[in-house]
Amino acid sequence: MEFLKVNNLTKTYLKDDQLIHAVDHVSFRVKKGSFIAVTGESGSGKSTLLHMLAGLEVPTSGEIILDKTNIYSFTEDQLTIFRRRQIGMVYQFYNLIPTLNVKENILLPLLLDRKEVDVNYFNQIISSLHIENELNSYPNNLSGGQQQRVALARALIHHPSVLLCDEPTGNLDSSNAREIADLLKLISIKYDTTIILITHDMNIAMQADEIYWMEKGKLSKYVEKL
């Protein structure tokens, strides 16, 4: 079943009196629980696309339909609630709060939304990500790989419909990067979470169910060159 539909999505802006198509009439479909990778050169429009999927950047035209709802039909307040409850975000540089320990960082989205903690689900997440022994540690005492696992747990704690990952392995060595990619694959299967991953690393992208290539704002299915 198609869970996410992107129809003719476009983002343009003026630069030095020239019209730039950051995202150029992009359309694609994603099934519930799929793991999708988008790769391409820097400046190709990948992050702009991801930000529009997250409701962080308004498209010039086109629509994003998530679970039968056009997200840009929301008011600003509704869009804020949508992002908080339906979207999980993971970035390259973790964005953990240094003065909070691991447990507090993970639970922060629930506290901000005044939601109760599902203890069983919390325990499942930290066990799946192998951070159950780090709950009282602070970010500065963790390795890069451990910090990214905490960021993943924080993004998952509110049961998001979609997990959006912007170069989550870009700051990691190859071993930790592969582990994070394997964990994303596990998350998509175990929690039926739809994942869209932006990455420069084709080895990481190959873990996805489908790979798209982005170039000059245009998106196409990736075909490996012989």
Tell me about this structure.
The chain has 226 residues and is α/β, with parallel strands linked by helices. It has helices at 46-53, 76-86, 102-112, 119-128, 144-156, 174-190, 202-205; strands at residues 2-15, 18-31, 35-40, 61-66, 69-70, 87-90, 162-166, 194-198, 210-215, 218-221. The strands form two sheets. Strands 6-7-8-3-9-10 form a six-stranded mixed sheet, sandwiched between helices. Strand 9 and strand 10 form a beta hairpin. Helix 3 (102-112) runs parallel beside helix 5 (144-156) and helix 5 (144-156) packs parallel to helix 6 (174-190). The longest helix is centred in the last third of the chain and has 17 residues, at 174-190. The chain is globular, with a radius of gyration of 17 Å. 37% of the residues are buried. The mean pLDDT is 91.
SSE blueprint:
Blueprint: E1 2-15, E2 18-31, E3 35-40, H1 46-53, E4 61-66, E5 69-70, H2 76-86, E6 87-90, H3 102-112, H4 119-128, H5 144-156, E7 162-166, H6 174-190, E8 194-198, H7 202-205, E9 210-215, E10 218-221
Parallel strand pairs: 3-8, 3-9, 6-7, 7-8
Antiparallel strand pairs: 1-2, 1-4, 4-5, 9-10
Helix pairs in contact: 3-5, 5-6
